[in-house]
Write the structure tokens for this entry.
Amino acid sequence: MRNRTLTAPHLKNQLMITRQVNVSVKTITRRLKAVGLSPKRPARVPKLLPRHKTGRLQFARAHANWNEQQWGKILFTDETRIQLWKPDGRGRVYRRSGERFAECNLAQNVSFGGGSIMLWGGISWESRTELIEVNLRMNADWYIRNILEEHVIPYAGFIGYDDFVLMHDNARAHAARTVVEYLEAVGIEALAWPPMSPDANPIEHLWDTLKRRIRARNPAPNSIAELRIAAQEEWNRIPQETIKDLLRSMPRRMQAIIRARGGNTKY
């Protein structure tokens, strides 16, 4: 039963196997509800191996006492994919019996989300980078030429090299030897980021904010070209104070990882 999502039918089967007791799913559901348990969608988190947990725990302990100024000098970067049409599964309609397939009650799916764009961005205490559309098959050379040279180096100059640290995750293009050697050659310090740790990166929450703002636009983007424009406009409209609030959460994120012994957290 370890690492498995427990459902009422699964519990029914387990009771039959281990106790030879035949209990209905309805009875199990009532019993669970009586003790305050109700069905919820499971949280989607990265699969953490023991080595991942060890690395995450070591990182959190090493940075547990960092202050606002230390976190503020880091440029947190990441990539995200935004689909043109992607229903979130939360919508509800009010209808009469027998009207399920009436035109006004349908949520129509579009193959492959109608297309998508992949974006790169970075945030720090005082500012943010431009929002850049990246190649879906980005490799190390493309990353150096189009991201590091064009955007990270100028941003480091803006912040000041002595006060600048780059955070990027362990994606293949980021961790390539040519990228490591390039950063060393230009004097950019890169934060040693633990693998499988999106919950520690505050920009992940900003991506969620950006996507919600795009979905809330009226009218909503109806083409990839409109999606590009919407993403840029909404990225620039996010208040800098929102970014500062996310950076202020870093001590709490570190403590959450420590409490979880390197495991997944609510962030």
Notes: The radius of gyration is 23 Å.
